[in-house]
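Can't attach files on this board, so I'm pasting raw text. These are the components:
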Amino acid sequence: MAIFCGKGGVGKTTLSLALGLRLAGQGRRVLVVSSHPLPELAIAVSLDGLATHYPVAARNLFVVHIDPKELLKEVVERNFPVEWVARAVLNSSIYQNLVEVAPGLKEFYFLARLQALAERSAKGVPSYEALLWDAPATGHFLSTLASARNFETFLTGPLAAAGGELHRFFSNMADVAVFPTTTLEEMAIEETLELCDKLAAGYQLRPRGVVANLISPLALASEAEWESLPAQGEGALGFALDRGALERERIAALRRRLDRPLVGVERIRYSRNDLDALHQIGEALGGLPGWL
Amino acid sequence: MRITVYLGTGGVGKTSVAAASALAQARAGHKALVLTIDPALRLRTALRLREGVLEQQVDLEPAATGELWAALLDVRATLDEAVHLYAPAALVQPILRHPIYATIADSLVGMQELMAVERIDQLARRGFENLVVDTAPSRHALEFLDKPMFFADLVSSNWVRLVGRTYKFVAGSGLASLGRKSIDFYQRVESILGANLVRQVLDFYSIFVSIAEGYAARAEKTVALLKDPAVTEFRIVTTPQKAQRDARYFVHALEQRRFRAGGLLVNRVWDLPAEGIEAPGLAGEALEWYRAVSRAHRQALDAVQREFGGRLGVIRALPELARDIDGMAALERIAPLVFP
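---
Top answer:
Structure tokens for the assembled complex are below.
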């Protein structure tokens, strides 16, 4: 299982889909769990033409959104096999309000489903070879992880036991590869560093690598190449050099403060459509440690 | 009273644009305040924002005819203030110390939206006439308007009022004064969710209900202000790559809720001259790369102009600023481009 996490707008969804497309294209069954409801995801990224242009990927790529409310509904239906009783509970305002205000409850059921999907198998064969979680933005991601730990700490009974098991699953490096993702904006970098600290302190999770997304070609050019460039320029060249210098400074700062591998993904300069962009980004993800 | 709400997905520079818009209002002679959620360090320093400080006037150089104020939406501080203001004195400490209170206040999920509306009310009471509101970075940002109403519905429902006032008594005595059916439901729900959790939430509600009722009443008033086109205008901030999709999504979401969509600001546009200096080798490759991105930006801007030029009053492009400009200098540079 791989998790793309980080600040809103850094490209977690795009990277998850791009990696999913690449792995599925190699014939591996991949499930992408998106934090966006599918109709909303369809507005953001169009997979039109998948079956025509990437037939192998189309057979192996699955995208879902898990709605915690639906999960809780299933729990109720399991507990009350008589349909009208289950419906009465679900429709009661007591139940609806409790579910809405109980802190962490929905996040907790979400995690449990994620673990179940990761471990799902038929006749000993895992249903998915890779599960990619396009996680919600940092705050919500951390509070989702925290819900498992909190349920173990604060409660007793069946939920607490399940919470303990979940907490252990998500703290296990062998099962879960976390890839904090950032752009080279100041805030996104700060948030990424903070996220790495919190993952290590709260969950013993050490990111497998950090992804620097939407970088320019000068950001990762070698020192010798950079030295060979003119010191300054006018117009477009000036902009390119300024921007390049800024990105190089920020990459250097990231490297100084992180002891994890850094994977750079260049901004796409031109794509015919979303699928083409995802394909290009998937190629750029070649350096993702331990994943390809 | 005039309210401008900035909407946009993450990473589009919404906070800077909102702050620049408040600055433009101050320069036009108004007492303007920008309510921000989570500004970058340098912007935070420029606006002199600190945790725990409710609002802060920003010194302007040269001085403006109006005033610029900045406030941070500190969820915990706003909620604490509401408890102190509106809870009966005897309940203030029991609420602040309740374990569920801590969980609710600290889990950011949903609370930012609820507290933004509370904060707008608090600021309006303090006499700020021009408010600029930065919203949580999400396509769901409009939940900031849906959630308070949900909360209002929740606390005004008979169930919560009844439970809030009587659950402890019922639970303690075992008397079925709520009626057999309700007790039955409690037990069923407890068997699924765990008795402990249910009791804690109900216990919290039994003491929090006085605040919640007040909150609901204020939220309804504030949302009415936000719905009033004479008072409030919503503006969408986006980047070139996202412009068309964001515009479609937010314009539709605003129209659905009958809010006034006042404009679209396309931020971080790379507007590079197409002609001019050529360079050899790596510099030339980089240059070509930057020009290609710049061309794509221009095409995206044209597309959004064509589609929304008639429907959205104003569509503006804001350039990506060079590296040596940030803080107040950056805001001063953008302010004239953001229509006040």
